[in-house]
Amino acid sequence: MEEMPPGIRFYPTEEELVSFYLHNKLQHKNNDINRVIPLLDVYKHEPWQLPKHCGELCHGDSEQWFFFMPRQEREVRGGRPSRTTASGYWKATGSPGYVYSSDGKVIGVKKSMVFYQGKAPTGRKTKWKMNEYRAIEQDLSTSTPMLRHELSLCRVYVVSGSFRAFDRRPIHATESSSNGNINITQKTDN
């Protein structure tokens, strides 16, 4: 792949991560995806080691890195995944949330995690975070949504203290003259 010119970055939305990258990887389509987002067991590496394993479009990025992660053997047998590394552990935060397509359909599930250095439960919280995405597909025979477990897509990043959100979309801010509050509405593409 060519090097991107200054100002151009690989910055996919959550919808693009699930509907394009994760679905194509699960369906074994488009082998070039491996150059953009490599297959890596994130839990076998310390978070600060992950940037050197990222795909071609994320080299030099100081904010975020993407990886496909295979399901662990213990998960296949019905157990919980091991999220420990040599120096710490990834801890899930909050409840899993849904990822929606632009037409309002649920296409995936997102789990957020924070890396702690040390042993649980006395580890020290770091600025390393991860969003783990799993795809949801419709079962055509029963029209029931099914969560795909065999592969997930991870976005690893360092909290910078910026208020900027990862899944940015055009937002229009208008000031209400009656109460002085700012009303924010999200622009939808038709």
TrEMBL record:
Q: What is this protein called?
A: NAC domain-containing protein
Q: Which InterPro entries match?
A: NAC-dom, NAC_dom_sf
Where in this chain does the record put each NAC domain?
4-159
Keyword terms of this UniProt record:
DNA-binding, Nucleus, Transcription, Transcription regulation
Annotated GO MF terms: DNA binding
Give the record's GO biological process terms. regulation of DNA-templated transcription
Recorded hits in Gene3D superfamilies, A to Z, give: NAC domain (2.170.150.80)
Q: Which is one Pfam family of this protein?
A: NAM
